[in-house]
Amino acid sequence: MAISNPYQKYQQNSIVTASPEQLTLMLYDGAIKFMNMAKLYMEEKNIQETHNSIMRAQDIINELNITLNMNYGISKNLRSLYTYILEKLIDANLKKDYSILDEVISLVEDLRDTWKEAMQKNRIESVQENSQVRI
């Protein structure tokens, strides 16, 4: 099926051409977006769309969890955090609890911001290494 919407084409292209680091950032952003949508649907008392949005956020967090490279020490901590987030999302979905979503959004925003900082630091270090004169 061909994509006719220019925005969808752009979005699809940005996903296909993204680095693994950028994809991780996109996943964090997507999870945050769906959790915020769930809050809006909760306010509207739209149970089905609240559920759907939380499920999409869960799918994203689960993807982040299962793709962790466990060769790095931090991965064990991230796995525990992702498991906690998934449990809280299930709880928020069952109880339709706005405050639980706020807590989880804050956690994922912190993860996203930290990831973004690490990407920027890595990019700066790469540029510095490549610009050094080699004798």
From TrEMBL:
Q: Where in or outside the cell?
A: Cytoplasm, Cytosol
Does the UniProt entry include the keyword NADP?
Answer: no
A GO BP term here is: bacterial-type flagellum-dependent cell motility
Q: Cite a GO CC annotation.
A: cytosol
Which UniProt keywords are given for this protein, alphabetically ordered?
Bacterial flagellum biogenesis, Cell projection, Chaperone, Cilium, Cytoplasm, Flagellum
- Gene3D superfamilies in UniProt: Flagellar protein FliS (1.20.120.340)
Spell out the InterPro entries in the cross-references.
FliS (IPR003713), FliS_sf (IPR036584)
- Is Acetylation included in the keywords of this UniProt record? no
* Stated family: Belongs to the FliS family.
User: What's the protein called, per UniProt?
Assistant: Flagellar secretion chaperone FliS
Gene source species: Gottschalkia purinilytica (Clostridium purinilyticum)
Gene symbol here is fliS
